[in-house]
Amino acid sequence: MDPDPSPSLTVNECIEQIAQKLNAAHLHFGHGAIDANSEALWIVSKQLDLSPAEALDYLEQVLSSDQYRNALAVTEQRIATRKPLAYILGEAWLMGVPFYCSEQSIIPRSWIAELIVDGSLEPWLPADGNVLDLCTGNGSLAVLLALSCPDIHVSACDISLPALSVAARNVDRHGLGSQIELLDGDLWEALPEPNEDNLFDLIICNPPYVNASSMNQLPAEYRAEPDLALAGGDDGMDIIRRIIAQAPDYLSERGALLLEIGNEFENFKKAFPQIPVIWMEVSAGDEQVLLIQAEDLR
Questions:
Q1: What CATH number should be reported for the domain holding residue 156?
Q2: Which pTM value belongs to this model?
Q3: Fewer Cβ in 10 A, N or C end of the chain?
Q4: pLDDT for position 196
Q5: d(Cα 109, Cα 121) in Å, to the nearest integer?
Q6: 19-40, pLDDT tens digit by residue?
Q7: Is the domain of 60 the same as that of 75?
């Protein structure tokens, strides 16, 4: 019998080896991992059936031959396909919470997640309050809201039925079916006509906002995601204009609209110079996520 050719490597040594391979391949990151080291940790942690954070406690553990070979196979697939790692593994982590992933929806990532988890949105999350996650995609923000605030009701809608099927799996995975309602439709068309009994205290939205010029320059990793979840028209504001136009009809008197706009700060200011905006501080800075109070939309 041939001897096993796999070396005996610790978790840390394997991470370093894989990170070197990923770096040498000139990949693009940003789908749940910020660089090659983070992605290598993610690949190896999956072989251990641990979260990337948990795997940091096992850096000196020696990998089995199968774990090592599987990690290398995932690495080679990542390099060969240029697909985001989350699609290859079928899972992504956002704020330490696992989510099912498939190419039917965008990969879980949003600066809004930071604001949910750190409590910044509490002033707009009253007990027994109603929250809407518009353009929910994979459902990750709705899930984080429900986990962070067990006493609120979350409605989550999307135009894409395939994306909603992913969201449904994530809602079920976290046992939140009684707290999160998934709705199908194009923005406000997914909702019943607003009246004083069905308004929202907070509407959050990570909409398609990438401008046309940027869409044309996206690397392969981003092109692997559905265009529908990314493209925001010439200036990135097409969907956002529709959201802002009708949001006042669906917000309670003291409610607010929270929008992620990514790198479209200048385009947003140009499109909506008259609207008073509160810029929210996230890890990427204070030009990516904004909050507009209901009274300033009317």
A1: 3.40.50.150
A2: 0.94
A3: N
A4: 87
A5: 18
A6: 999 999 999 999 999 999 999 9
A7: yes
